[in-house]
Amino acid sequence: MALTVPALPFTFVVHALAVAGAVLVLVWVLHFRGGIAWEASNKSLIFNLHPVLMLIGLIIIGGEAIISYKAYTLKKEVKKLMHLVLHAIALILGIIGVYAAFKYHNESSIANLYSLHSWLGITVIVLYGIQWIYGFVIFFFPGGTTPLRSESLPWHVAFGLFVYVLAVGTAAIGYLEKLTFLENSGLAKYGAEALLVNFTAVLTVIYGAFVLLSVSSQGPPEDENGYSAI
Prior knowledge:
Layout: H1 7-32, H2 44-47, H3 49-66, H4 68-71, H5 76-107, H6 116-140, H7 146-184, H8 192-216
Helix pairs in contact: 1-3, 1-8, 3-5, 3-7, 3-8, 5-6, 6-7, 7-8
């Protein structure tokens, strides 16, 4: 059941947190970690693509896709297309981000898929892809029958939110894992970088919480533009 609080205050906070999160992760990798690169002798620059693409792509753009039906007063077909395209961008950036982590590991002679973060990360990408393909086929093209769409919608929403919560949790674990490695390599535990990474992780979780609050809050009156009209 939707919250009686209007969606607008929550979606406004989501947008503000999205900007803040993007700024923080860019400050981390560009200022503290030396930048980003696809090819470099310093392999850490390759890894730096991973947190940037996962946060801005899968978490932030993915979150914006989730709230698109509540955040914008547009026609149903426009919001449906926005929802689909934003999720596609999030998924593509997420796949590239995961590949960047594998590329960094392979070029640095580091084992792959040994940590909980990596296991959950692959799970998230696979489930996200399945969710997007199912949504495209049933709700966009070629499109399922009206009864099938009506029956699928609650499951589509619930599964999508589950995958998103899993993505946010996986990101938080990733920050912890990377910061632990850095601290074991000599990074000051109470230094500026450590505090920035922890604060970015906290903001990521808060962002995810406001996405959930926004999508569960009271949207516009149900009409031809309503979410259930999908």
